[in-house]
Amino acid sequence: MYLCLEALVLRSPIDPEPVDGFYCAVRAAEPQFLTTPRRREAWYLSTLAVHPVYQSQRLGRALVQEGLELVDKAGSASYLVGLRSVEAFYPKYGFKEVCRVNVGELKAWDGGSVMFRE
């Protein structure tokens, strides 16, 4: 499964400008959500996506569960930044919104929910 997903995900080059803006916005907001030692040591669940052709086959669930198994084995918290269209997906895994980062240059972005699983 990993090789198949990797091949799909890595086909298109990434435009660095929006990516840089995203990471700058997240870094600027860190003082709002990295407020405890446990949160400062939390694992970041990086960007996950399933190609639309393969959605509704529980692949997103498998990706999240695999990552969370590693986090749980380490006894750590985890966090992510979600798009509005998937914000309802993550509470099933114990994530709760703590703030939003769709501010500044990202204010028009339809998403930006910083969610923690502690």
From TrEMBL:
It comes from the Eukaryota. One of its GO terms (molecular function) is acyltransferase activity, transferring groups other than amino-acyl groups. InterPro entries: Acyl_CoA_acyltransferase, GNAT_dom. It holds the Pfam family Acetyltransf_7. Coiled coil: none annotated. Residues 1-118 form the N-acetyltransferase domain. SUPFAM superfamilies: Acyl-CoA N-acyltransferases (Nat). This is Acetyltransferase. It comes from Metarhizium anisopliae (strain ARSEF 549).
